[in-house]
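Batch manifest, entry 17 of 40.
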Amino acid sequence: YFDTANIVTDQYVYYQVNQNYFREFGREPFSYIISTNDPRDILRLPMNYLDSFSDYHSFSVTAYNAGGNTLGNSTVVADAWGTLITNGITLNDVLRICTHTITNGSYVGPSGPYYNHSNSFVYSFYSASIRYPVLEISTDSIGNITYTTYQDFLNPVIESQTNSFPEITPNPSNGNFLISNPGNDDLEITLYNSTG
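Output type: structure tokens
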């Protein structure tokens, strides 16, 4: 599905990176496929402090007995620059990229049609000396943190061993699903239907 991608993560997300952009093509885990009709530009390079761009993107979701389409727009701004101090390292010349994304999707599953609206912010911190963001913080539209990821410089791990996140399959679901918890983390689970 993603012939022009040159990077794939352990979460089966496919990217293409070159001297002009950092672009997401889609996802292909075991239970569904998200393929882009118009790929999402994560960065357009070079990106300097106060640079910005907007990107329209769309993708299709295909899963067992379900499918649909999502349209979205992202506004990307390099809104901060400076020193990032973590528990294990101090990095100079770090660029913070704020990405505000709004998406609207419609899907059809075994129980009928449903709709999805998302409004989120992702703050990614890039250092010239490290290829991937050293820190990412994602929030919902009112600022509640929904996830964070970071490079642990004191206790680095091998990338192939980091796939220990809880997973719900199939997603979307007809009402029956499986929750796997390979990291044996304490979980608090809240279920919402398509209307919230």
